[in-house]
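Example 4.3 (complexes with small molecules)
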Amino acid sequence: MELIYKSTRNDNETATASQAILHGLAQEGGLYVPSFIPKLDISFEVLADKTYQETAYEVMKLFLTDFTEEELKHCIDSAYDSKFDCKEIAPIKKAEGANYLELFHGATIAFKDMALSILPHLLTTSAKKNQVKNEIVILTATSGDTGKAALAGFADVPGTKIIVFYPKNGVSPIQEKQMVTQKGNNTYVIGIKGNFDDAQTGVKKMFSDGEFAKVLDQAGYQFSSANSINIGRLVPQIVYYVYSYGVLLKNGEVKNGEPMNVVVPTGNFGNILAAYYAKQMGVPINKLICASNENKVLFDFLSSGCYDRNREFVLTSSPSMDILISSNLERLIYKLAGSEADKNLEFMNALSQTGVYQITDKMREGLSDFWGGFATEEETAAMIKELYEKAGYIIDTHTAVAAKVYQKYLEETKDNTPTLIASTASPYKFTRSVMNAIDLAYDAKGDFELVDELNRLSKVPVPNAIEEIRTAPVLHKTVCDTDKMREEVEKILGIKI
Ligand SMILES: *Cc1c(COP(=O)(O)O)cnc(C)c1O
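Answer. The structure with pyridoxal-5'-phosphate bound is encoded below.
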C-alpha cells in the first residue's frame, strides 16, 4: 500500500516519500508526517536473525513505498558498509544492568551517521525519480554532529552542494576541527555568531522563502535539508530500535513480546520520535524516556504540558542537545492534536510569536508513552566517572545524560523492564569533557594528548575519524553574523540579487 506524507501545517499538502525527502520541509514551515504508521510484517523470531541491513530493508520498505526493492537495497548497501567499523553496525554493550546501543560506529562517530550515511543515496534516488534537473543544495544547521555527518555523506556526491552553519562558540573543539577540515569540492562550512537555535531559524527562513526559491530555481538550484526534519533521516533512525529488539531477543535479554524501555538523550526530538514510531510499528516498547541536559525545555513540557522556550540558553558539555526549539516535537504535537494541521498551526504560531504554548489536558494524555528527566552538568560528569569506575565503560557526555536520567527513572518508578540506552556519540568526540569528568587534572593536557589518555583508560582503539583530524589542515574559515546567513549562501551559489 502506498504511504503518503502530509504536512503538519496544511492538510491539503501531500507528498510521496521521495518528494518529501527531496523537499525536506513542507511549505509554510510544515514538516512531513506519514499519514499512518505501518505495522511490521515479520515476527520477532525472524527479526532476531536478521542483519542490520536486512532489518533496514524490512522497516524502510514500509515507509518509502515509492522506492523499488532494488533501489532501496542499493541505498542500504551503499550506506551500511565498511564506513562502519563493525559488522553489527550498531552493537549493544551491557554495563551496570543497562543495554547501551552504540550508535557511533560510523564515519563521524556520532549517531547522526546512522541516517546521514544513507540520506545522500535516498536523496539522489529521489531526484532521479522526480526528474529533478536542478543541482540540490543541502542547507544544514548543526549543533555539532549533524554538520560533520552530513558533510561526510554528501562530499563530492554529484549533483549536490552542501552548506553547513554551526554556532562558532557552541561546539566541542573536536567537533569544530572535524567540520572545518572537511574535504570535497562541494562542501561549505560557516560559523555563525549565535547559537544553534539561531542557525536553525536562519536555515528554516531560507527554506520557507518562496521568492528565494524562485531565484534559486532560475540559477539551477533547489534546497533540501539534511536536518532531522527530513523524513529521509527519521525513517532510517527507526531501524535501529527495531533491530535492537531483535538483538535483545536473540541475546535472551527479553522474552518474545516482552517490552523494553528506551532512554534517549534528546535535543531536536528526532531520535526519540523514531523510537516512538518504532513502538507504533509494533516493537514492544514500554516507556520512552526523554533525557535532557540543563536546557530542559522538554522535561518541563512533559511535566506540565507547557512548552516555553523563553529561558536562558545554557552551553553545556553535551552541546548536541543544547536546543530550546525541538523541531521534531511538532510531529508529536500534530499527532496529539488529532492530526489536524490547523490545530497544530495554532501552537506553532504561538511558539514563534510568544515562545510559549500550552497543550490541552486531552492532548497531554497522549504523552503517557513518555517519561521526562534531566541531568545537571555535575550529575552528568559524575555519571561518566561512576560508570567508568564500576564497569570500566566510558561513555560520552550525551549518553551520560541519558544514563543519569535512567538512574533517576529507576529510583522514582522501580520499573525493572529491560532497558536500552541510546548511546549517541563516541567518548572520543567529547574527549575533554569526558576526561575532566574522570579527573579534572586532565584539563591541563592538549586535545590530542587527551585522546591518547582516553585510549589508555578505555582500551577502545582511537577511531579513524579522530586519527584523520590530528594533522588535517583547516579548509573552512568563514564566520558570519546570524542575519548574514542568506548573503553567505548567495555568495557561495554566485547569485546576485
Ligand atoms: C544530535 C544528537 C543528540 C540529539 O538528538 P535529537 O535527535 O536531536 O534529539 C544527542 N546526542 C548526540 C551525540 C547528538 O549528536
